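Task: sequence design from structure.
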């Protein structure tokens, strides 16, 4: 019984956080005075930080952040969907503003000319 409970706890901890792809539009993009890049997305319906152009933020380098900023601005102007991947169970778990975790990636989805 003890081994069974230990195994169940291990499996619950192992499977507690999945990865989720959050797909939708970016309607607003801004860079704060502190360098944080903040997006308003249709899938979250709130503002959330993704990185900082002033220094590493939650493991995201400045170079990656500048690339993400470019992708976000392109998506906003072209009204193209993006996908952001998070190590969470659901997109609505992404915190707002600086409470958000860093995404694993930001992808421009389905842009065509």
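Answer:
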């Amino acid at each position: 019984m003890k081994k069974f409970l230990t195994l169940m706890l291990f499996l619950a901890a192992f499977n507690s956080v999945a990865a989720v792809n959050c797909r939708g539009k970016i309607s607003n993009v801004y860079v704060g005075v502190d360098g944080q890049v903040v997006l308003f997305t249709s899938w979250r319906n709130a503002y959330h930080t993704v990185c900082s152009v002033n220094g590493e933020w939650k493991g995201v380098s400045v170079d990656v952040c500048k690339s993400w900023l470019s992708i976000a601005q392109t998506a906003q102007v072209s009204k193209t969907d993006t996908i952001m991947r998070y190590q969470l169970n659901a997109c609505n778990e992404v915190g707002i503003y600086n409470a958000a975790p860093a995404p694993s990636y930001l992808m421009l989805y389905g842009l065509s000319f």
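Helices lie at 2-14, 62-78.
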